[in-house]
Amino acid sequence: MITVQNITLxxxxxxxxxxxxxxxxxxxxxGLTGKNGAGKSTLLKILSGSMKAESGSIxxxxxxxxxxxTQDIERIT
Length: 77
Fold this sequence. Notes:
77 residues; mainly beta; 3-stranded antiparallel beta sheet; 1 helix; 3 strands
């Protein structure tokens, strides 16, 4: 179970998330959709721990590991 409580994040005067709270149970399957720039990738980065929210907390079980596969393509020249 992953518990997210009251996370808030702002970028350059723009609020992406404010007091967002949700719970993900072990058997849940989740889809994340939204417009470009809405904060989908940023939310995943916060969940994975590679980025910090301004406020709020995220609790995960010890055996839980969150990883993301970024959409960036590395070009080899």
